[in-house]
């Protein structure tokens, strides 16, 4: 008995009908945004439209993250049915940023660089800039609004919104009520363009600078750091890891970062989670600005961050899968290996250093001794034990 090979094309898909009207996709538009506009042009919700024109079990598809789904058959079918070339359709999918913004080995869910549709740690629902929607002749949702580094609109200098401004419901395109524009909250029917914008304060403009730096790097496919071109993928992978590392610092020290006090104040407030406020969006705005700051004045800011927060080589590397060479050599450069790889430190060696310091008139401290021994003064356990025994 032989089993038939699984076919991608099967009876689940609607073969016969082509789309009747196809609004023009914008080049930075999300696939789900464009499809919702196509559905509304047919006088249907996204669910019904999919069931009628694309796949018999339409809602099974619309319930998934269409923007991230990798399904060549779906994209091919959309191209044929809309008579829009396949390249244009592919570019609407977030998968088109693979290799630039993220790497993904047939992964089902978006990696950290892309917001999931729902994830309370970073945002509530699909994000948007009310002013961009207001200025659009045909309002649409941008791809960039799903990138983790994008928390504010550069053009309007305001924070992105992650919910309806009146009933605080998250935005879900598949639930949006039919209209000639995709701008209404499905729950209270409020026009999202009227959502009150929150301006980014003048003193936090480094956060906007950060977003535009990341935007440009992604557009170019590389960043220029210390006069060297570094692939955008490498920087975005490092971004994800550094953001995680910064987020984990209970008492972050980074004097060179001008927004530090505001960031700390915000973190304090966020301990009391308020589901009606966009706290996580503001926090990610700051985290993005800090990562940006670490890449500036390279490698000095990064070096200071490592030193002032007593970070180890392991902190920078741990959990980082497929570490890019650029990142590894950067970390090798800022944290010398002797600080990280355990080597035997003997009691006599430490006594010798203390005597040397006394003899030279230099103050004997745990730090000054460690510097000469060549280990980290507050991390190397053997050293700390010996030092405390002697002094
Ligand atoms: Zn805007
Ligand atoms: Zn609402």
User: Which distinct ligands sit in these coordinates?
Assistant: zinc ion
Task: Profile the largest sheet.
Answer: 2 strands, antiparallel
Strand order of the largest sheet: 1-2
Radius of gyration (Å): 26 Å
- Could you tell me the number of beta strands? 4
Number of helices: 16
Q: State the helical fraction.
A: 40-55%
> N- to C-terminal separation?
80 Å
| Class based on secondary structure composition and strand pairing | mainly alpha
Which residues sit in consecutive blocks of at least 5 with pLDDT less than 50? 1-7
- Rounded mean pLDDT is 89
> How would you sum up the global shape?
elongated
Name the features.
16 helices, elongated, binds zinc ion, mainly alpha, 391 residues
Describe the structure.
Among the domains are: 13-97, no CATH class; 212-335, no CATH class; 347-390. It is built from 16 helices and four strands. By secondary structure, the chain is mainly alpha-helical. The N and C termini lie far apart (80 Å). The protein has helices at residues 31-41, 46-54, 58-62, 72-82, 86-92, 130-135, 205-220, 232-247, 260-270, 279-295, 300-308, 313-317, 325-334, 347-360, 366-373, 381-390; strands at 152-153, 158-159, 222-225, 228-231. The site of one zinc ion (ZN) has 8 residues, from loops.
What's the quick description here?
With 391 residues, the chain is mainly alpha-helical. The protein is built from 16 helices and four strands.
Topology:
Elements: H1 31-41, H2 46-54, H3 58-62, H4 72-82, H5 86-92, H6 130-135, E1 152-153, E2 158-159, H7 205-220, E3 222-225, E4 228-231, H8 232-247, H9 260-270, H10 279-295, H11 300-308, H12 313-317, H13 325-334, H14 347-360, H15 366-373, H16 381-390
Antiparallel strand pairs: 1-2, 3-4
Helix pairs in contact: 1-2, 4-5, 7-10, 8-10, 9-10, 14-15
The chain binds zinc ion (2 copies).
One zinc ion binds next to loops.
């Amino acid at each position: 008995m032989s089993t038939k090979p699984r076919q991608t094309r099967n009876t689940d898909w609607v073969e016969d009908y082509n789309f009747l009207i196809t609004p023009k996709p914008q080049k930075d538009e999300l696939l789900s945004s464009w499809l919702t506009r196509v559905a509304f042009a047919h006088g249907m919700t996204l669910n019904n439209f999919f069931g009628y024109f694309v796949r018999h079990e339409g809602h099974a598809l619309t319930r998934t993250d269409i923007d991230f789904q990798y399904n060549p058959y779906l994209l091919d079918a959309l191209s044929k049915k809309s008579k829009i070339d396949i390249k244009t359709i592919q570019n609407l999918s977030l998968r088109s940023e693979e290799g630039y913004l993220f790497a993904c080995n047939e992964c089902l869910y978006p990696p950290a660089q892309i917001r999931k549709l729902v994830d309370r740690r970073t945002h509530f629902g699909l994000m948007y800039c009310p002013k961009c929607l207001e200025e659009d002749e045909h309002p649409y949702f941008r791809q960039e609004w799903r990138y983790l580094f994008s928390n504010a609109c550069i053009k309007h200098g305001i924070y992105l919104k992650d919910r309806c401004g009146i009933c605080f419901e998250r935005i879900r395109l598949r639930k949006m009520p039919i209209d000639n524009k995709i701008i209404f909250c499905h729950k209270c029917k409020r026009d999202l363009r009227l959502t009150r914008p929150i301006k980014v304060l003048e003193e936090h403009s480094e956060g906007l600078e950060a977003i535009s730096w990341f935007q440009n790097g992604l557009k170019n496919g590389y960043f220029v750091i210390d006069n060297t071109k570094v692939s955008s993928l490498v920087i975005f992978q490092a971004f994800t890891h550094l953001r995680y590392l910064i987020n984990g610092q209970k008492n972050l020290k980074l004097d060179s970062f001008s927004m530090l006090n505001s960031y700390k104040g915000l973190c304090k407030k966020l301990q009391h989670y308020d589901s009606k406020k966009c706290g996580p969006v503001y926090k990610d705005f700051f985290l993005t600005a800090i990562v940006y700051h670490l890449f500036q004045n390279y490698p000095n800011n990064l070096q200071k961050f490592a030193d002032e927060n007593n970070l180890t080589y392991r902190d920078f590397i741990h959990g980082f899968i497929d570490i890019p060479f650029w990142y590894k050599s950067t970390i090798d450069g800022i944290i010398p290996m002797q600080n990280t790889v355990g080597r035997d430190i003997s009691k006599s060696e430490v006594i010798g250093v203390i005597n040397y310091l006394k003899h030279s008139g230099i103050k004997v401290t745990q730090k000054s001794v460690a510097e000469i021994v060549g280990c980290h003064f507050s991390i190397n356990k053997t050293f700390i034990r010996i030092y405390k025994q002697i002094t």
